[in-house]
Amino acid sequence: MGRWPAGVYGEGEEPDPRFTFANERTFLAWLRTSLALVVAGVAIDALADSDDANGYRVLSAALVVLGTVASGAAFFRWMANERAMRTGRPLPGIGLGPVLSAGIAVVALGLVIVFLV
Amino acid sequence: MARRPKPLIHGPWDPGLQNERTALAWRRTVASSYGAALLVGRLLLERAPVLAVTLAAFATALAGTLGILARRRYRLSDARLRQGEGLPDAKLFLLATALIVVVGVTALATVVSRT
After folding, report:
1. Of A8, A72, B9, B76, which one has the greatest count of Cβ atoms within 10 A?
2. Cis omega (within 30 of 0) for bond into A98
3. Is A2 helix (H, G, I), strand (E, B) or coil?
4. pTM for the model
């Protein structure tokens, strides 16, 4: 069919379009989540007190990296989902969600510590 | 997948309005991307004014482009659905991801390079 990427569209058959649309919306939701993380990281860094700057800076960087990585992961995730739907296989496992949750929890704890210390 | 009978010409292809919901999701995402890029630019304005303005200009151009392409995608999907053809490819996804990666890398560079 010649659609890009061939790694997704080369195999299998067209799934029900509603599933494809749902996959697309999930991908877009991940992108918005990534954005929220990046913005949170920048906000922390921009608004931090200068005497605690180093502590906040690490946490900011962590959030920004998490967000950026999540956006790339979202795209790979979309491809894996679409491929699975086309070939009638189960959807791939749980993905980056728990990693992101853990990362956010760690950063939140870090913020409390830096703020109180 | 059961093919539906020929749909009404003026109605949505699908009573669940999946294509319309997806088009709205694109608009939310493009709007959020643009807002986030401007926010990052605003927060960095004092520290790195040239970068902030460049990011704002770049984000404006890219958000505008993405908005137009997403609308075109909606129309193309609608036409393809009615003809029983496959939906569009993933190039637009790559562009959207690239925009966010650019925002993220710019943000990281400014966080790390803060004096």
Report:
1. A8
2. no
3. coil
4. 0.88
